[in-house]
Amino acid sequence: MTLPPSSTQVPQLELRDVSARYVERGETLLALSDISFQIADGEFVALIGPSGSGKSTLLDIVSGLFPESKGTVSFAGQPLSFEERLGGSAYMRQRDLLLPWRSALDNAALALEIHGVPRRDARTRAAARFPSFGLAGFEDAWPSQLSGGMRQRVAFLRTMLADRPILLLDEPFGALDALNRVALQAWLIEIWESERRSVLLVTHDIDEAIFLADRVIVLSSRPGRIVHVEPISFPHPRHRSLLATEEFFWRRSRLAEALGLLDEPEEQEDSHSTRADTRSAPMGRAPGVPYDSGEMAS
Prior knowledge:
The chain is of the alpha/beta class and 298 residues long. Helices cover 34% and strands 21% of the residues.
């Protein structure tokens, strides 16, 4: 499935017919098949799909950590090998990966140090961003002294300080509790609206994908193929109140259907027993997919 260009300008990231294979217990398996899409400069794209569909593998390919078996990956119109892509994007995984022997400030500054910035200058530049990331006063805190949400903020600041045009986010809030996750989603969209980097986000959360992204790409089960693309037209700046709108619910339902999460009702002679059975057994669904009307009314 080939997607139309996101814009008339040269895309910041483009994948054409990308496939990936890996070997497990002596058997070669196809992880991704013929993936094609573009991300424009300043566009936020979310990637969603079942576990094992190759979402994280796709981020590894873009970042240069894993080679594609077929296809091309281009940055700003330039096709690059996986070795050439290494270091061309900023990659944040689900775990914060903070170094326990470095303070919050030194962890954030690490991205600059790796790219050759002297430590004193790196610390100064990182410290200047602490207030806007909600970290003022925590510069000298050790990772063990920070909450999960604060650790993710430090990790995201480290990612942003790498100053790469493409951000790869692999379920950055997946390990957090629901309240922290909601708060950090709102914080992330605010930061992105001021920075406008190109973002490729992997998530299992349908609500998160809709709230954050300009476009949501749905992958099938392995081998991962693009089965649906959902444009998200909510204007910016975005606020959590849009989750209660009719259009949000409609987008959520379309994505849930594309993921195969909307169960078809079983035909039974007694409609009342059908409703009772539906209420007693929750649908198989990802976080953020609502119960049906019968469950919501109970």
